[in-house]
Every structure is written in structure tokens, then in C-alpha cells.
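Example for tutorial group B:
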């Protein structure tokens, strides 16, 4: 049975965003510092699922079968497996002291006149390695605060540099949940998306480093007590294997085993029981994003079956008539990612919500999967990095006792990343050469 396109079929996702955003705004106005994380996303989506099932039944769609089919989609299940492995890897490497080793090595090699760019680069490498901006902030901000106070630098400027580095890795890391969600939703290869993203993120990072080098006064830096430098190897192995094109599940599995072996070899207090406990703790840290992924998959299937996605596709085509080139498609994906993140205050949730529509826009405008995944991830992370009520700024501002609004203005990397990305989208020569055989690719229109 063919279901007619319907705007009403999209109201469940609007209800989810209304509940999630509305509750966050309410608790923030009540003075709760983590207001947008009082009503958790997996709970906020339940009324939306109920509404979606009711609307699907009204349109002659079997709601339960459709819901379960969407929740059990192969891409959703693979994404969840990757989330769990990434969480286990991040927790184990932190437990064995690998994060401390990276921070100590980075600060130990830091010239006294390059405190700000040095902190940015340390945070960038840590975040790139562990794939989480929140974990990076928790590890690096306390050290950065000590350096800031000792050097007499403005706290907002110092923490803004750390924030920028944390978002660099969050956006680019192959084990970041945003990268995983973006590549899986667009049908892109992890390696291809990394390369596409790299060409945009690195110029923005270099400009950020140059800018930070002129801000603040020179001061001596004392590195914290270092863990064994050998503990950096698990991160390097994971990055190297990922760039060879090896399946990300195998990459993370190997990284998890290597991390455990290093922990067992270098610490007499680290044993197999502790190792297995850390893996499970890592799994638990990914519980929320895993649940959201599964439930979003079900909600998306309900809305699609009820005609919501067809209505969106028709609406996009109507507004894009006469502007069917690559640029208009990429700007549509960018606006979609940025707007959804501003409403949900969670870049992974934003990508999960907007992924299907972004893929549809990409196919209609001749945009390759790697390009659509890159744009989707970049603009979700850009907004998340400067969102005063986002988890990253709330965490950093709480640790540093700095206003979230002031801190948002000092995350220079995110603002520069947006400018560089817009420049790449406007550049007329972009996208002419397409590698044959990539899923969903066609010759882009300029």
C-alpha cells in the first residue's frame, strides 16, 4: 500500500525536540547548571514514539512491526556496536593512564611562549585519540586551570583553547560517536569521511594555533608527572589502523586488546578483572547514545512509513527548484545539522535525527556520501562547541567558574571551522573530481 506524503507524520520528531528543548530551557531558567540534561533524550523520545505509532496506525501502517524493523536496522545495530566498543576503548585507555601520558608528553614539550596553542594541540590530540570532547575536557581542563592561574592568563581564553581542541577531535576522530553516526547515516566509509573532514578541519586548526600564539603572555610551563610514554601507543595503533581502511569494529577491538595488554604489562595493580570491569564501565558510558540510536531508528521508520520523509523530500525539491546544485544542497545539510543541534543541545542526537533527510538531500543534489557526512558532522559540532547550554560548555564553565556565554565567545576554533567550511562549500572547483564506485555518488552540479 502506497501512503501519501504527509507533514503530520513529522510531528513526532517535533514533539521530541519540544520536550527535550523545552525541559532544558525550563531547568536552565530555574538555575540548574546542567538544565538540558535533566530530561534525558531516551525518555523524552517515548511520547514521540507513542504519537508516531498512533499516526502510523491511522494511515494503515502496522506500527509495532515498523517500529521494531527500524530499531533493528542493520546500520543502527552496527552503530550501537561501534558505540559500545568506542566506550570500552576510551575507558580502558583512561584507566591505564594513557590520557595522562598524552597530556604530560604534550605539555613537557611545550615552549614557554606557546601556552595557548600548546593546550589547544594537547586537547586536540587527546580528543582525536579517545573520541570524546567531554572526556577530553575532564582530563585537560584541570591542568589548564593550573597553568592559567600560574601564568596569570584569562581563564576564559585558556579554557576556550582547550574547548576548541576538544571539539577538533570530537569532529574528526574515527571513534567519536558523531563521526560514527554521520558516516553510518550517509553510507560513507570512515576513511573517506576522515580525509574529507581533514581538509577542512586542519586549516581551521592551523589558523586557530596562529591566532592563539598572539594571545596571552609568555610564561614557563611545568609538565605534570608523566605516565609511561609507551601508553600513547594504543592511540597511535588505532589511528594508524583506521587510516588503512580496516573495518572500524576490528580497529576498536584490536585497540581494546592492545590497551588491556599494556595495562597488564605496565601496572602490577591492573589485572584481568579490572580490565573486564573497565570495558563494561565503558559500555555503560555509551548507554544513552546507544538507546537514543535504537529509538531514533524506530521513530524514523514510523515517520517514513507514514509519509513524513516523502513530504520532506517534496518540500525540499519545491524550495530547491532552480537551485539544484551542490552548493544549495550542502548549505541545506549544514542548516539542518546546525538547527537540529541548537534545538537538541546534543550533536550526536542532531545527526541521528537529521541523518536520513541529509542523505536524501545529498542524493538529490549530487553530493557524495563522504561530503554529506563531513558537512553534517562539522556543523553539528560547530554549534555544539559554542552552545552556552551544551554539555561541553556547561562542563568547562562549571570547572573553571566562567560564564558559559563568555566561554562561547572564546572557542575560536569552532567559529573558524564554520568559516572555513562555508568557504569550501562556496569554492567553485570543489567536487568536480569524484572517485568512481562510491555509494550514491554522482557528478555534482556547480
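The residue assignment follows.
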Amino acid at each position: 500500500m502506497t501512503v501519501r506524503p504527509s507533514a503530520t507524520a513529522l510531528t513526532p520528531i517535533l514533539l521530541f525536540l519540544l520536550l527535550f528543548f523545552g525541559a532544558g530551557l525550563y531547568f536552565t531558567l530555574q538555575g540548574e547548571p546542567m538544565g538540558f540534561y535533566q530530561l534525558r533524550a531516551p525518555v523524552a523520545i517515548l511520547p514521540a514514539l507513542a504519537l508516531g505509532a498512533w499516526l502510523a496506525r491511522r494511515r494503515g501502517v502496522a506500527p509495532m512491526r515498523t517500529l521494531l524493523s527500524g530499531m533493528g536496522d542493520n546500520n543502527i545495530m552496527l552503530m550501537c556496536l561501534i558505540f559500545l566498543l568506542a566506550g570500552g576503548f576510551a575507558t580502558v585507555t583512561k584507566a591505564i593512564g594513557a590520557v595522562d601520558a598524552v597530556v604530560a608528553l604534550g605539555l613537557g614539550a611545550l615552549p614557554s611562549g606557546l601556552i595557548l596553542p600548546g593546550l589547544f594541540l594537547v586537547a586536540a590530540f587527546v580528543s582525536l585519540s579517545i573520541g570524546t570532547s567531554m572526556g577530553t575536557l575532564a582530563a585537560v581542563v584541570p591542568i589548564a586551570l593550573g597553568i592559567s592561574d600560574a601564568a596569570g592568563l584569562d581563564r576564559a581564553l585558556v579554557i576556550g583553547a582547550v574547548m576548541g581542541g576538544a571539539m577538533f577531535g570530537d569532529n574528526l576522530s574515527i571513534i567519536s560517536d558523531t563521526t560514527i553516526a554521520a558516516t553510518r547515516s550517509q553510507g560513507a566509509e570512515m576513511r573517506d569521511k576522515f580525509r574529507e573532514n581533514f581538509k577542512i578541519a586542519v586549516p581551521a586548526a592551523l589558523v586557530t594555533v596562529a591566532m592563539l600564539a598572539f594571545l596571552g603572555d609568555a610564561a614557563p610551563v611545568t609538565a605534570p608527572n608523566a605516565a609511561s610514554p609507551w601508553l600513547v601507543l594504543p592511540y597511535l595503533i588505532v589511528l594508524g589502523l583506521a587510516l588503512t581502511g580496516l573495518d572500524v569494529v576490528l580497529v576498536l577491538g584490536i585497540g581494546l586488546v592492545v590497551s588491556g595488554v599494556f595495562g597488564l604489562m605496565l601496572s602490577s595493580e591492573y589485572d584481568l578483572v579490572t580490565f573486564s570491569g573497565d570495558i563494561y564501565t565503558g559500555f555503560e558510558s555509551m548507554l544513552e547514545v546507544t538507546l537514543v540510536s535504537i529509538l531514533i531508528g524506530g521513530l524514523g521508520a514510523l515517520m517514513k512509513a507514514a509519509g513524513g520523509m516523502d513530504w520532506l523530500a517534496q518540500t525540499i525539491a519545491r524550495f530547491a527548484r532552480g537551485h539544484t546544485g551542490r552548493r544549495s544542497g550542502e548549505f541545506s545539510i549544514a542548516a539542518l545539522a546546525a538547527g537540529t543541534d541548537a534545538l537538541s543541545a546534543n550533536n550526536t542526537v542532531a545527526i541521528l535525527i537529521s541523518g536520513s533527510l541529509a542523505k536524501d538531500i545529498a542524493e538529490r543534489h549530487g553530493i557524495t556520501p563522504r561530503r554529506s557526512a563531513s558537512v553534517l558532522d562539522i556543523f553539528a559540532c560547530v554549534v555544539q562547541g559554542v552552545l552556552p547550554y551544551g554539555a561541553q560548555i556547561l562542563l568547562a564553565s562549571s570547572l573553571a567558574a566562567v560564564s558559559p556565554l563568555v566561554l562561547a565567545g572564546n572557542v575560536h576554533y569552532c567559529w573558524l571551522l564554520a568559516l572555513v567550511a562555508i568557504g569550501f562549500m562556496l569554492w567553485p572547483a570543489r567536487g568536480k573530481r569524484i572517485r568512481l564506485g562510491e555509494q550514491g555518488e554522482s557528478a555534482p552540479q556547480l
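Residues 190-213 form the longest helix (24 residues). Compare this with the pattern of hydrophobic and polar residues in the output above.
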